[in-house]
Amino acid sequence: EEQLARIAGLPKTELHLHFEGAAPPAFIRGLAAEKQVDLSRIFNEDGSYAYRDFTHFLSVYEAATGVLKTPEDFARLCRAVLEESAANGVVYSETFLSPDFCGGGDVSAWRDYLHAIREAAEAAERDLGVTLRGIVTCIRHFGPDKARAAALCAAETADDWLVGFGMAGDENRGRQRDFAYSFDMAREAGLQLTSHAGEWRGPSEVREAVEDLRVTRIGHGVRAIEDPATVEMLAERGVTLEVCPGSNVVLGVYPALADHPIDRLRRAGVKVTVSTDDPPFFHTTMRREYTGLAQRFGWDEEVFAEINNTAMDAAFCDAATRAAVK
Ligand code: ADE
Ligand code: ZN
């Protein structure tokens, strides 16, 4: 009990957090009321987000995001998200931002959104002690053309705060290599790379993320466990997995945490880290992820220290930021 409380209270690094997906339902309901938009269909009676499966989750996510209109809306969201992170002991976090939802891929509009978000993040860092960095993400089911616009936004705004480029969305659509042009553009602009793979599709998708997009991190990647050669490749190349166990269980990738491969991957020498993905959608928090893993796999404080070291080593921020957080 005491040990569990200590584990829940550890300082945490989170590498995989969708910005809009972290919006508390009450925050979205409040914005909808202000703007007189009827969003009741995306909520359960108890106020939580209502969705049936992964593709429906994506459409509910996009509907919720629809009430976030102005840079000011996103700045308010930033404060709400970081208050939740700080309450969970998160000291460093990277979040996925989508130009598709912030100005529709227009670079000059994107700059305004980014500026508002960054200002809110810097205020929250002073007040709450949590450091945030941004990763521009393209959305796979929006297709390669929209991805290019997102990559251009990323390349034009890459700096010490906007540190990465990635891809989220429906892994069952298209191929990773359709997005190689965008990832190349982002890499040439100095951004570090991650892609969602091996959440819905198997080990070959994980290999393609590494080989076709040349990412150093993978969102999820857990289904690599189905092929020993892929597990070995990840371990050998030192690819870091952004594992989101609670998300995987709620979305049905695995029936229960006991079936989740995170501990097996770790024991096989793969660099694993722990994140929430879209916490209110999956009824999770960083504290819940940690206590769940401690209870299910017997992870102690030493293991969590190793997990957090792995995460800070794989963080996309500069060395000075990394040193200040560590
Ligand atoms: N966008 C938000 N959450 C996601 C997830 N778990 N997988 C793919 N795309 C997402
Ligand atoms: Zn994700």
TrEMBL record:
Transmembrane segments: none annotated. Coiled coil: none annotated. The keyword Zinc applies. Residues 11-326 form the Adenosine deaminase domain. The keyword Flavoprotein does not apply. Keywords: Hydrolase, Metal-binding, Zinc. Belongs to the metallo-dependent hydrolases superfamily. Adenosine and AMP deaminases family. This is Adenosine deaminase.
